[in-house]
Automatic annotation (TrEMBL):
<dbReference type="InterPro" id="IPR002078">
    <property type="entry name" value="Sigma_54_int"/>
</dbReference>
<dbReference type="GO" id="GO:0005524">
    <property type="term" value="F:ATP binding"/>
</dbReference>
<keyword id="KW-0902">Two-component regulatory system</keyword>
<protein>
    <submittedName>
        <fullName>Two-component system, NtrC family, C4-dicarboxylate transport response regulator DctD</fullName>
    </submittedName>
</protein>
<feature type="domain" description="Response regulatory">
    <location>
        <begin position="9"/>
        <end position="123"/>
    </location>
</feature>
<dbReference type="GO" id="GO:0043565">
    <property type="term" value="F:sequence-specific DNA binding"/>
</dbReference>
<dbReference type="Pfam" id="PF02954">
    <property type="entry name" value="HTH_8"/>
</dbReference>
<dbReference type="GO" id="GO:0000160">
    <property type="term" value="P:phosphorelay signal transduction system"/>
</dbReference>
<dbReference type="InterPro" id="IPR058031">
    <property type="entry name" value="AAA_lid_NorR"/>
</dbReference>
<dbReference type="InterPro" id="IPR001789">
    <property type="entry name" value="Sig_transdc_resp-reg_receiver"/>
</dbReference>
<keyword id="KW-0067">ATP-binding</keyword>
<dbReference type="InterPro" id="IPR027417">
    <property type="entry name" value="P-loop_NTPase"/>
</dbReference>
<dbReference type="InterPro" id="IPR011006">
    <property type="entry name" value="CheY-like_superfamily"/>
</dbReference>
<dbReference type="GO" id="GO:0006355">
    <property type="term" value="P:regulation of DNA-templated transcription"/>
</dbReference>
<dbReference type="Pfam" id="PF25601">
    <property type="entry name" value="AAA_lid_14"/>
</dbReference>
<feature type="modified residue" description="4-aspartylphosphate">
    <location>
        <position position="58"/>
    </location>
</feature>
<keyword id="KW-0010">Activator</keyword>
Length: 452
């Protein structure tokens, strides 16, 4: 869980109790948060890369002196400002600490205003360092998320933004997506980019567990709780302590068990089967469904109170047919993964096959596309005729003829751009259209010139 943000704080260390008290009062009167310490060891315990503060230390102290404290603190974070206070005879030592990385040094006796000015500058520098690090972390997270959830469509950009916004919270999340759309991938991203990432991620497929054992799987049991329960067993929810519980196909959970799950989510406590003892659990709940749970709860097939408890935040994974422009990019991403698994080179993609990939409805979504990418890399799709074809059932493809033609032209142009490594002349020559005609089509179809 996200800890409260610490205010910018000065960690002041000196072995003189009168000076500590006076300096502490002066900082407080100036509106600067301060913590005072009698030894360097106590300060060093509080130094981390995320410390929102600075160190002000006397240079001569019993035990660890100020110079040693500074060196140890800078080993933890080289960008941490350390201000050294020195006596008149210790100026050469203070100059040496400046060479070793001290932010500033102040010679005793000093005016309090001089120290306050130096501390305010140092705290501002620290604020900027932490802000830059936070921005870099966000960018790194966005890159990592884009590698997991591949796609340039607006729907995927929105999904990644929503995951980023929710990952750092403990809000319950309900993920909705069709079969094979990547619901567990989204759930794992919510876990891996949260502060619970080092704790267990426990996935439970409610549809795959028989009704007579799902309660024991979730909540555990004591020895002798039922026939065959020879030993105590820790349930999945308890095992996930500090982490995330992912309930896939939540619509398949029996109604009587939904009551117990609701109580667990509300109270964050469980009772093992055969026990009267209540056990606290610190977990985050993420559920996934391919059904409309609002409709299921309205018809009595799913408890409405559990639905509303789970639906604090709702993530929708778009099916592939609703983001056809992502299909080529995602296919080559999956093909690269297959190349690494099978140690095979990726065959050349023909424009005809790419067009058919775009035209297919992909009822199995990413899972189905991954299977095709695997077979393609294994050499089982050597000719375009083997590629998936659109389903011919009437009414399955609701796109207009113009939309289908646009998809086909888009696929052809992208394939040729890839083949020519982004050079336009070979593209319009092979397609037998004018240069202006190619530019016009690329602009109308939203194709960038550097694609491929």
């Amino acid at each position: 869980m996200t800890a409260p943000r610490q205010p910018p704080t000065v960690l002041f260390v000196d072995d003189d109790p009168d000076l500590r008290e006076g300096i502490g009062e002066s900082f407080e009167l100036a509106g600067i948060a301060v913590q005072v310490f009698s030894s360097a060891d106590l300060v060093l315990e509080r130094v981390t890369r995320s410390l929102n503060g600075i160190i002000v230390t006397d240079i001569r102290m019993p035990g660890m002196d100020g110079a040693s404290l500074m060196r140890s603190a800078l080993e933890i974070d080289p960008a941490l400002p350390v201000i050294v206070i020195t006596g008149h005879g210790d100026v050469p030592m203070a100059v040496e600490t400046m060479r070793d990385g001290a932010y500033d040094f102040i010679e005793k006796p000093f005016a309090m205003d001089r120290l306050l000015i130096a501390c305010r500058r140092a705290l501002e520098k620290r604020r900027l360092v932490l802000e830059v690090r936070a921005l870099r972390d966000v960018l790194d997270q966005q890159k990592a998320l884009a590698a997991r959830l591949v796609g340039r469509s607006w729907a995927m950009e929105r999904l990644r933004a929503e995951i980023t916004a929710l990952a750092g919270t403990d809000a319950n999340v309900l993920i909705h997506g069709e079969t094979g759309s990547g619901k567990e991938v989204v759930a794992r991203a919510l876990h891996d980019f949260s502060e619970r990432a080092e704790k267990p991620f426990v996935a439970i497929n409610c549809g795959a567990l028989p009704a007579d054992i799902i309660e024991s799987e979730l909540f555990g049991h004591e020895a002798g709780a039922f026939t065959g329960a020879a030993r105590q067993r820790i349930g999945k929810i308890e095992h996930a302590a500090g982490g995330t519980v992912f309930l896939d196909e939540i619509e398949s959970m029996p109604l009587d068990l939904q009551v117990k799950l609701l109580r667990t989510i509300e109270e964050r406590r469980i009772e093992r089967l055969g026990s009267n003892r209540s056990i606290g659990v610190d977990v985050r709940f993420v559920a996934a469904t391919k059904e409309d749970l609002a409709a299921a709860s309205a018809s009595g097939r799913f408890r409405a109170d559990l639905y509303y408890r789970l639906d604090v935040a709702n993530l929708h994974i778009p099916p592939l047919r609703e983001r056809r422009d992502d299909i080529p990019l995602l296919f080559f991403h999956l093909a690269r993964e297959a190349r690494a698994r099978y140690r095979r080179e990726i065959p050349e993609m023909t424009p005809e096959m790419e067009a058919r990939l775009l035209a297919h409805d992909w009822p199995g979504n990413v899972r189905e596309l991954r299977n095709v990418a695997d077979r393609f890399v294994l050499g089982l799709y050597r000719i375009a005729e083997d590629a998936p074809r659109p389903r011919e059932a009437p009414g399955m493809d609701e796109r207009s003829l113009a939309e289908r033609v646009d998809d086909f032209e888009r696929a052809q142009i992208r394939a040729e751009l890839k083949r020519s490594e982004g050079r336009l002349k070979p593209v319009y020559e092979r397609l037998q259209i004018s240069r202006k005609g190619l530019y016009d089509k690329m602009r109308r179809l939203g194709i960038e010139g550097a694609e491929g």
